[in-house]
Design brief:
By secondary structure, the chain is an alpha/beta fold. It is 49% helix and 11% strand. Among the domains are: 99 residues, Conserved hypothetical protein from pyrococcus furiosus pfu- 392566-001, ParB domain (Alpha-Beta Complex), CATH 3.90.1530.30; 45 residues, no CATH class; 46 residues, no CATH class. InterPro entries: Chromosome_partition/occlusion, HTH_ParB/Spo0J, ParB/RepB/Spo0J, ParB/Sulfiredoxin_sf, ParB_dimer_C, ParB_N.
């Protein structure tokens, strides 16, 4: 990739569209024959029939607010579509959406038969990058959607984190913080996506290595309405209380013992330690984080 192309990609979606050598504006030909349509001057807006436009198969966003779509549709009915969508031309009467799916959906709701569009040419790689970059730049995108888009760009566009940061104009640490969200348990990811907890809560939770402890603190956030600052304090106390193991490392656990320990940890939402010596004797240790946590464990034991 040339230096010019890298700089263009770093500017975001607009640079991808405007600086690409593959741009091919297209002007609809009203001639009813099957002759090749006339090519218009660069930068022109073309009126494209809605039934000739298919959605972008690389669109990472599938959740659209129906109320917001209805409001946009009402605006389009009154004022028309102000900002054209962008499509790529498949053939003379077939187009594929690059960006603007929300505007496309609202235009259909508004009853439009055609829509103003910029017509470009782009390969699948460019299509995916354009869709992902446009998606990431949305103001109302939740953190999990951003993280998933980042991960797709790494996996499907063969980018490194530094290159990804250049594409989306974010530093590497910011990109890494988003990607780390995808390592959280599914229940926590769903809460981030749905607004149950904030990005600040999530940043505190991702510093904890143990998923069981992550889930326990997550439940406390929901039940007690803990602030981000309070969660950060809990995490700091937890990390300070960690005892570093010294000396000889214990013998590896058997598969059966490891499974029992994992099952107990899942049941109690805590990091359970199961110790068994060569004579078959041992102990089960269930640590707790607070008096409330202890009472929760005792209730589960029918104490």
């Amino acid at each position: 990739m040339s230096a010019e192309k890298r700089r263009a990609l770093g500017k975001g979606l607009s640079a991808l569209l405007n600086d690409s050598e593959d741009v091919l504006p297209y002007k609809r030909n009203n001639n009813p024959t099957n002759a090749e349509p006339e090519v218009s001057s660069p930068g022109s807006v073309n009126e494209i029939k809605l039934d000739e436009i298919e959605v972008n198969p690389f669109q990472p966003r599938t959740d659209f607010d129906e109320i917001a779509l209805g409001e946009l549709a009402d605006s389009i009915k009154l004022q028309g579509l102000i900002q054209p969508i962008t499509v790529r031309r498949v053939n003379a009467h077939s187009y594929q959406l690059i960006s603007g799916e929300r505007r496309l959906r609202a235009s259909k709701i508004a009853g439009l038969k055609s829509i103003p569009a910029y017509v470009r040419t782009a390969n699948d790689q460019q299509m995916l990058e354009m869709a992902l970059i446009e998606n990431i730049q949305r103001e109302n995108l939740n953190a999990i959607e951003v993280a998933l888009s980042f991960q797709r760009m790494l996996d499907e566009c063969s980018l490194k984190q530094e290159e990804l940061g250049d594409r989306v104009s974010k530093n590497r640490s910011t990109v890494n913080n988003y990607l780390r969200l995808l390592k959280l348990p599914p229940a926590i990811q769903a809460a981030i996506r749905d607004g149950g907890i904030s990005m600040g809560h999530a940043r505190a939770l991702i510093t904890i290595d143990d998923p069981a402890q992550q889930l326990y603190i997550f439940k406390q956030i929901l039940q007690q309405g803990l602030s981000v600052r309070k969660v950060e304090e809990i995490v700091r106390d937890l990390q300070r209380s960690k005892v570093k193991k010294e000396g000889k490392q214990p013998e590896p656990m058997s598969f059966q013992v490891q499974k029992i320990q994992d099952d107990l940890a899942s049941k109690f939402s805590s990091k359970v330690r199961l110790k068994i010596n060569s004579q078959g004797n041992g102990s089960i240790e269930i640590p707790f984080l607070s008096e409330e946590d202890l009472n929760r464990i005792l209730e589960m034991l029918d104490w």
